[in-house]
TrEMBL record:
Gene name of this polypeptide: Ccdc62
Coiled-coil residues: 3-34, 59-114, 178-205
Superkingdom of the source species: Eukaryota
Organism taxonomic ancestry: Eukaryota, Metazoa, Chordata, Craniata, Vertebrata
Keywords associated with the record: Coiled coil
Gene source species: Podargus strigoides (Tawny frogmouth)
Protein name (record): CCD62 protein
Length: 268
């Protein structure tokens, strides 16, 4: 019975060894298929590496193109800023000139009003001078009767005379000022004509600058669209490269697991 049991155990062991042998054969076949797949993956990785190098070269070239486009965009933006600054300066100068013309017109009106008021004052002073002269004749007839009145009248006459002299000097000054104001008015009129011509010229320059600015803006928009398109292509290429790297890592980890399993099976 012991021998039979041992024979049965031997038969069981032989059957188990056969099963293990079949499993080993299957694992060897699987390992060979995995080796073939690994070789295929290695060839594929080599091709992918070459493609990555080509893509890197293309990316470098695209980076150079993008850099040149960015530089061109910066240059065009600087030109646009310069043109904006020029247009703003032109508009500011136009506003200042308009304000100056308005101030000059108001000043001319004020001077004309002042001249009219001075003329009225001169007429009043002339009438007052006649009145004072008549009063002086009356006072001369009353000199012998009233000394105190004479003294007061003399003081009054001296004051009136000083006032008259002051008024005459003011009249002369007003006339000279009127003459200078007329000259200044003529100069301002000439300056106004020159400023109007300069404003028209600045308006023409502003229109040309705006046209040039619109063209530059259209070119900048086109360059920005092309830059965005190139950036999208670059992002897609980088994502493809990352995915290929992930697949390569997965294949390497799978190969490592297969090697560990095969070494453990060989030890068994």
């Amino acid at each position: 019975s012991t021998v039979q049991k041992q024979r049965q155990e031997l038969q069981l062991l032989i059957a188990e060894l056969k099963d293990r042998d079949e499993e080993l054969n299957e694992m060897v076949a699987a390992h060979q298929s995995q080796l073939l797949a690994w070789e295929h993956d290695r060839q594929k990785i080599l091709t992918l590496t070459e493609q990555c190098s080509l893509l890197n070269n293309m990316l470098n070239k695209r980076d150079e193109v993008i850099k040149s486009l960015n530089e061109r965009v910066k240059f065009l933006e600087s030109q646009q800023n310069d043109s904006k600054a020029t247009s703003e300066n032109t508009q500011q100068k136009f506003k200042e000139l308009s304000q100056k013309v308005t101030d000059t017109t108001a000043r001319c009106k004020a001077l004309e009003e002042k001249n009219q008021s001075l003329h009225c004052s001169v007429l009043e002073l002339s009438a007052k001078t006649g009145q004072l002269q008549a009063r002086e004749q009356e006072l001369l007839t009353m000199l012998k009767l009233k000394d105190e009145v004479i003294l007061e009248t003399t003081d009054h006459i001296t004051q009136s005379t000083s006032k008259l002299r002051k008024l005459e000097s003011a009249l002369c000054a007003a006339k000279t000022e009127e003459f200078s104001l007329n000259e200044e008015k003529q100069d301002l009129k000439l300056r106004l004509k020159e400023l109007i011509l300069e404003i028209d010229k600045l308006k023409d320059d502003l229109c040309e600058k705006r046209k040039e600015n619109s063209k530059q803006q259209e070119e900048i928009i086109h360059l920005k669209e092309e830059n965005g398109y190139l950036r999208n292509e670059l992002t897609l290429a980088v994502e493809k490269t990352k995915r290929k790297d992930q697949l390569l890592l997965f294949a390497k980890s799978k190969q490592a697991r297969t090697d560990t399993e095969l070494s453990s099976l060989r030890q068994v």
